[in-house]
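2024-03-11 09:14:02 INFO receiving multi-entity request
2024-03-11 09:14:02 INFO entity count = two
2024-03-11 09:14:03 INFO echoing inputs for audit
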Amino acid sequence: MTAVDRRAFLARTAAVAAAAATGAATLPAVAAWAGGPARFGPGAYVRPRREALADPTELTLAEAAWMIREGKLSPAELVEAYLARIGTFEPVYQAFNTVLADAARAAAKAAGRKRHTGPLHGIPLAIKDNYWTKGVRTTANSYLFQDFVPPSDATAVARLKANGAIVLGKTQMGPLATTRATTPGGRITTVNAWTPTIPGTDPGGSSTGTATSVAGRMATAGTGTQTGGSITAPANAQNLTGLKPTMGRVSLAGIIPLSYTRDHPGPLARDARDAAIMLTAMAGADPADPRTQGLPRVPDLVEAATPVYSRGKVRARWSTRVGVLPGYATGTSAAALAQQAFLATVDAVEGVRLVDVPLPDEWDLLTGTAFNNVRLPERSEPFMPYLRTDLRGFGVSVTGWLQGALLGANEFITGQRAKLLLLERVLDQIFDHCDVVVQTGPVPFDILGLPEIGFPIGFTSAGVPIGTILGGEPYGEDRLLSVVAAYQAVTDWHWRRPVNPPAAGPAALRSATGDRGRLSAEDVVAQME
Amino acid sequence: MAPTPPTDAELDIMIRARLATLGIDLDQLPPGTAADPATGSPGRDSVLASLRSFVRGSVTALAAYRLPAPAGSDPAHAAALSQQPAPMLYPSISTEWRK
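2024-03-11 09:21:47 INFO inference complete, emitting structure
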């Protein structure tokens, strides 16, 4: 325990003792995080591409940071550009629960007067609506939280703001983070920015609104949470780079819980470098979250996400073995062909080597439905007051919470014992042979709390993005970023943007915003994160 | 001898009793199988069917699992040896204090 953490612990212990002595019923609130900005190297600022100069919403975070630092773009201009797109296209995308236009304008104006704080200075972000935002309604798209106005910011939000970021709005999500974004009653809201007139196209969940807002150029970057693929899935679905860090890398303080051992806050961004900037700001120890304590220091993620060149050719920053699991890239589907091309491309980067790795013993069993379901009591237990009084308040999501209440403590302990066994096997049977590994789905590494990065590798013939996921060793986010940065330096998938939705005349708007379908409780159980 | 698997009716009683023990009344949900049109909440019969499936699937599978004994162990000692692996809520974090 560090000195500061020990002090916080002792202060809280003393307060609890005092409360007990006086008969007080409540604990003191954990103080909101109050640190300063993170340190960034020069790699966090990138001179913009020529084609991005005409429209500030086209700029990556690093490009916008360069423009603002050089005085060529003001935070106010950047915010107004995004608000203009939100005004035009949000009725179709439906990515936001709340747009904080006035507050964002005020923050941008203030940022224009303040000393430069770093690459996030004046950058407008989309925040998933399960992150507490002080004084701003935080609903998790649930009836249960429809009137919840948090008393403080989530630590991750506080860190982003301390780095100069502007909260542009709160984004739509799967109800209580279970599926793609819908109303609490299951009516589909947010669409995939690549197919805005086809609501049936999966936009990825549950961080759907953040993904659509970034892909649709209504925010520079944003935050998501992942319990069962909720960052990597929408990143893959919408041509973004999403980074789910190792458990504990980012504080969960002030985020509405879904599953304590599985919830991972992280960024959704336009490329690896932007994801690195976001994670650098979000990451670090937090006295309010013991899971963040005693971990390795956050490395220079932006440097890791900066491509390295040797004689004009991209090479790996670190010599890296990419593990390939059985079944990955097999077949002739569009996804399989894209995966094959991805492997060939990354294999051609100097310093990268593909190695076949096995599925660890009992992989299908220990990562399958039953062992995945040991997470469910973690969602029922903190929601017991709601389960007793307001079952209908869970809307279409209720079944998972009732399942959690049914799972016995014996089975829960078996699941926790199996998690360590699974980790040992992943470390021994996979990571003894490679440094990063392709994933055939996000759940196994979500169970273990290991880092994953989702990024684009192609498109279907219908123009829908195809992505893939790489997984890493504990606290190996830098290695993951380095591989994706090298891949993105030799490909252009991540530069592609969806065309704007059809001109939103009254008739077109009605058709685009009408009934988009509805998920049932059974659908939610089948798709549950 | 393995016990006879419970019937649907027995499971329904168990599920309702377990939830009631926790203070959860399933009758908060709409009767039958139709969802509440306003909230999308499933009918209680639909939920009971789903919960029966959950008990027969996940609960049973987890309960049946035994952690393996080290390779080469005497089978006569397998049950005792399989007690040794400890539970770990946060396996990735635990790698830091096991270095």
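2024-03-11 09:21:48 INFO post-check: The helical segments of chain B are 8-22, 44-64, 78-81, 91-94.
2024-03-11 09:21:48 INFO post-check: Residues 13 and 19 of chain B are 10 Å apart (CA to CA).
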